[in-house]
Specification:
alpha+beta, 17-stranded mixed sheet
Length: 259
């Protein structure tokens, strides 16, 4: 079957987007999804996202990692699907959509900047050398020296498969501080099983962890990723966070058809 697709990216985190409101794309075809995301034999992407109808929201987001398996929330994917919905004429400048972790509110301006409300975070667990929290996806956050020279794929995979986060594993974020309200981040993503240029739930986790660790006193933090800058804003009540927003650029790359 021939499928029409749209390619989007948000700070280098790229996605194959498919309008599945007519339910023509099979969500169970793991091999197809994996092939479409393959950078040599397919379209090439960190993940595939289906936009579907929803009974009590503007649309529903179904996210698959590039390995073909349905996964937890993707923040940059959430920003990109808002831009996709606007392109399809489903929304104007505001959206409410359902994802695997619940409802999300978002706004988009004419320049493609999307501000996406993330889930509330009620717990950040701090260990001696790292922190762990769930921002829609599970994240390990670790401050490191010489971030630029770090072998993120090797060290990230070792942590992801160490068993410390069970069979499902976790995404792994390595962080260095640039200023009082700016940090650099590199992320190893499970499902992609490699470093990505950016991770939305990852930078969200980093910002909140840095606040808990008292590395910043700000409620708005800039995260520099390999793919560009993202902004996280939030409200904090002791160890809990609400009104968490992930903001950054999105870009439509191209449209095509593939069998």
């Amino acid at each position: 079957m021939q499928h029409t697709f749209y390619k989007y990216q948000g700070t280098g985190n790229d996605f194959v987007m498919i309008d599945n409101r007519d339910n023509i794309f099979s969500k169970n075809d793991t091999k197809l999804i994996n092939r479409l995301c393959d950078r040599k034999f397919g379209i090439g992407a960190d993940g595939l996202i289906l936009l579907e109808n929803d009974t009590d929201a503007d649309f529903r987001m179904i996210y698959f990692n590039s390995d073909g398996n349905e996964s937890s929330m993707c923040g940059n994917g959430g920003r990109c699907i808002v831009a996709f919905a606007k392109k399809l004429g489903i929304i104007d400048n505001e959206a409410i959509f359902n994802a695997i972790d619940g409802k999300h509110y978002a706004t988009i301006n004419e320049g493609g900047i999307v501000s996406l409300q993330m889930k509330d975070v009620n717990k950040v667990t701090v260990y001696e050398n790292y922190a762990f929290l769930d921002t829609g996806s599970p994240h390990h956050v670790e401050l490191v020296d010489n971030l630029e020279l770090l072998d993120v794929k090797k060290i990230g995979a070792n942590i992801r498969y160490s068993g410390m986060y069970g069979d499902e594993g976790a995404n792994v974020n390595f962080v260095s501080q640039n200023s009082a309200d700016e940090f650099s981040v590199r992320t190893y993503e499970r499902g992609v099983e490699d470093e990505t240029l950016s991770c939305g739930t990852g930078v969200t986790a980093v910002a909140l962890a840095m606040k808990i660790l008292e590395k910043t006193s700000k409620n708005k933090v800039t995260l520099q990723t390999l793919g560009g800058a993202l902004e996280i804003s939030f409200k904090q009540n002791k160890g809990q966070f609400a009104d968490v927003y992930l903001t950054g650029a999105t870009m439509f790359v191209f449209k095509g058809e593939i069998v």
